[in-house]
What we know:
Shape: globular
Number of strands: 24
Order of helices and strands: HEEEEEEEEEEEEEEEEEEEEEEEE
Low-confidence stretches: 11-40, 333-338, 343-347
Radius of gyration: 26 Å
Distance between the termini: 91 Å
Mean pLDDT: 85
Strand content: 35-45%
Amino acid sequence: MRHPRWTGGRALAILLMAAVWIGSGIAVYLYFGAHRTMLAAQAMKPTDVRLKEGPISRLPGTVYLAQGGSLYRLRRGSFTPVLKAPGGASVWTQPAFKPDGQSLVVVRRDYGSSDLYSVDSSGRETPLTHNANRAVEANHWAFYPHLSPDGASIFFSYDRKDPANAYNVVLSVYSMPAGGAFSQAKKWTVPVSYTGGDVQPIPLASGSVIYTKYSFDNKTNKILSQIYLTPRAGAPGKPLTDIEDDCSQPAVSPDGQRLAMICTGGKQFASLEIAHFDGSNVGPAQIVVSGRLAAQPTWSPDGASVVYFAPQGLNGHFQLWQIATPAPAPPAAAAPAPSPARGSQTAKPAPTPTPTPSPSPSPPPQPVQLTSDLDFDATSTIAWHV
């Protein structure tokens, strides 16, 4: 069998074809590179943005937020790093103010455990718990610290593992003296096994504690959340919200009369809702933000607004938003009406018949985006103090 001979013309043709292939590949790459979406965009560091002239500059007081494992202080529109990311799998997250408004309790989350740290105004760190262990099954987690109103106790979520069942890792609400040791910690709640447990405790001036409890919903066969209240350590507590509403992340207003929370109704998107709170019961809720992946509502020191995290655009980076809150109103005397479907920005008041036509309601306030091109930790609480 004779093989074709390599002639000059044939070699030239092959070289031309290769050049076309290479050129086409480069052209396609450049074309798609020029038409890429923001999905691949990298978030900026808070210290790299200039926000002094925007709405964020008018936020009163001091706000602490976490991004990229570091803790930042926001004041008059400028971000300042307070705790830099320790490196590796370690991050700083979930800051909470002490009553003095100068020092914090912060969570340091590591690869297999997390601990509470006290951080003073200069950024000096003092560990309050020691949850790391050489044996992985003996590691523990401490999350969501919150100081009691008198500053005497730190409430948090902690996983006291069952030695006979290391796979059942659920969090319970605990408290410990602010100036004491973890050996003095006291367990407040009994979580539902294999659900995630009880998280984000908020101690009240009355001595009660509200928190998020995760439980199984037999109707939907899902794990859903409810806002719970317990008057004392060991008491069974009572739900303040219905399980089908799937509400979590409670935040009590500075005057103690309103409760902000995130509710999903068991769906993908969430609503930011505000309800009257008398210290032991929650009234009908008003939806102020809907159809968003909203998280971590936090009241302004004057109670006039709430900030929260929500993603911006297609990149999914969580930004800081603010919305004015409705004035507090007493609970209606009549029985509450059924909750409307979440996803529309409507209120859920009890029906009150009126003999005369009522004036048209004013349009609800619209959220204001305070940051862009950043990417805050949406699992981290926001700390805001005057």
